[in-house]
Amino acid sequence: MATTTVEPQARKRRRKTRTKNLSTLPALAASEFTASQIDLTPGREHVICPACQCWTPITGVQGTPVLVPHHTTPYRDRTATPRRCSNTNRRIVLDTAVDTWRQQMAERTEVSASVASRRPTTVLPKPKTGSVPAASQIRPVPLSVEQVRRAFRQHQEQCLACKGEATDRTGQTLPCPDGERLAVTVLRLFRQEPKRRAVREFVARERRRFDREYAQAAPTREAAWAAVLPAVQTADQLRRAVPQGARLTEGPEVPLDRQAAEQSVGGQLACERCGATESSLADAVAAGWCRITRRPHCGRCAGRFPAWTRVPF
Predict the structure, then answer these.
(1) What is the pLDDT at residue 259?
(2) Of 81, 177, 240, 268, which one has the fewest beta carbons inside 10 Å?
(3) Among the listed residues 32, 80, 90, the one whose alpha carbon sits nearest the alpha carbon of residue 56
(4) What is the pLDDT of residues 257-287, one digit of tens each?
(5) Whole-angstrom Cα distance, residue 39 to residue 174?
């Protein structure tokens, strides 16, 4: 049996970007680009193309640096009709040292970080949410026959199962539990509607009767108060009357003894708290002085203590 020999075929190689073709445009200078527009990391030289504003690799760094052939659109944008950029194979002069570029990048990063730290952060206001009422504050709303009937009709118009158009794999019509629940609710409300109407009419009738009786009782109540008013005033006057021969012994309206008012308690009276002074006992009493723990205090300082601790002179 004869054997056939298959001729080996070379694998399709990737097209290299190195070429001897050079663009006729004048050469670019690396010093014309800012530190953020060029990357001089060894082995990863890139630059933003001035024509298409795309990051473009730089080839031939050891010899004649040029921009690799590229399109006007970024590599991630796959277009059906790509167009080659005019800066393809354009020479670029690397007149900036790698250390200088790294120093510029470090300074730029430091400046941007300091500027960002000086700028205030954006304050995001907390969304305002309404307070949810407690369970004891929720008032149940009675169901209305008209509302439930309207919801049932709307459900029938939108539900395929209620129309009989929804089927399972075997072709049987699927039931609609929501439609059944609404239908049962509508029938129950229709059956209870006469009783509900009677209860509402009874409550309204009792409310009108209560308002009518309350309005009629107001003049009677005012007349009763007016009838007992003279007796109440007489009782108040008798309560305030002082028996003959009796005098009040305590209180601010009781006058001081003349001798006690004119005499001085060991010279001037000095407040134990603030140091205010009064020349006589009469002046101190007129100014509202009191004794607190057997020590004199002016009226302003005495107001800072409880009432049960203040003893008048």
Answers:
(1) 44
(2) 81
(3) 90
(4) 554 445 444 567 888 888 888 887 878 888 8
(5) 67
pLDDT digits (tens, 9 = 90+) for 8-60: 676 776 665 556 788 889 999 999 998 889 999 888 899 999 988 989 999 88
pLDDT of residue 47: 93
Residue segments in the chain with a per-residue pLDDT below the cut of 70: 1-6, 8, 10, 13-19, 112-120, 241-267
Short-list 293, 295, 292, 296, CA closest to 280: 296
Helix (H, G, I), strand (E, B), or coil: what is residue 200? helix
Contact 297, 290 (CB under 8 A): yes
Query: Which candidate, 55, 61, 17, places its Cα nearest to that of 33?
Result: 55
The strand pair at 92-93 and 269-270 is best described as unpaired
How many residues does the structure list for the chain? 313
Secondary structure of residue 173 in the 3-state scheme:
strand
| Euclidean distance between CA atoms 92 and 177, whole angstroms | 76
Rounded CA-CA distance 6/4 in Å is: 6
For the record, the structure tokens of 163 come out as 């129309």
| Identity of residue 84 | R
Residues 208 and 234: their CA atoms lie apart, in Å, by: 41
Q: In 3-state terms, the chain is what percent helix, strand and coil (to 5)?
A: 40, 10, 50
Gap between the Cα atoms of 186 and 309, Å rounded: 74
Residue ranges of alpha helices (H) inside the chain are 98-118, 145-158, 160-163, 177-240, 258-262, 281-286, 299-302
